[in-house]
Amino acid sequence: MGFWNLKELKLNEFRPGIFSKIESGANLTMAVMVIDSNKEGSPHNHPFDQCGIVLEGEIEMTVGEGKKLLAIMETYFIPAGTPHNWKTLALSAKILDVVAKQSV
Amino acid sequence: MGFWNLKELKLNEFRPGIFSKIESGANLTMAVMVIDSNKEGSPHNHPFDQCGIVLEGEIEMTVGEGKKLLAIMETYFIPAGTPHNWKTLALSAKILDVVAKQSV
Fold first, then answer.
1. Considering the domain B12-100, what is its CATH architecture?
2. Chain A residues within an 8 Å CB radius of B49
3. B3 and A80: CB-CB below 8 Å?
4. CATH topology of domain A13-100
5. Could you give the ipTM of this predicted complex?
6. Which of B64, B66, B98 sits opposite A28 (nearest CB)?
7. In Å, how far is A15's CA from the nearest CA of chain B?
8. Residue A89 CA from chain centroid, whole number
9. What number is the average pLDDT over the span B2-6?
10. Is residue A104 predicted with pLDDT exceeding 60?
């Protein structure tokens, strides 16, 4: 809780090839994720915003009609309700991802 | 909107010595900020979570009873309602900061 040093933070494998650690408060969830190369999500959307930044490697993000291979120091912003997906190619990716928690 | 490359993103000076660009959706506001050295905020709190990561330089973050000089690849998470403040010392800081938007 509070402060993380991502250079030494231990992550947990929560799906095969996807390692993460999350911190969650009243209305935000922050996640550090390391995703192996050649992994892919499935298109989905949710009624809350999501955003993040690539810290290492590369990840292809599809947001609505836009698709971009993001590298280090590139960010994404996914407005609430917008269909999106992610895919890693030859490189793994380390990202910091933040979502608004769904209102109860 | 969508994707930013922070290596070439143009920021605007919104207070003396503080440069930023923000993107805001239904329930998140993401901001890239560059803060000159030797700047300091004022202690405050708000009823929504805030989090972020240091991308360049250093910034001292005070969150509740905790205080830490954060460097590159270090993150902070400020739970809703927790008093906090920030301060730059000899170095400037570039951060990515995300807040939940206050519910109406």
1. Sandwich (2.60)
2. 25-28
3. no
4. Jelly Rolls (2.60.120)
5. 0.95
6. B98
7. 23
8. 15
9. 95
10. no
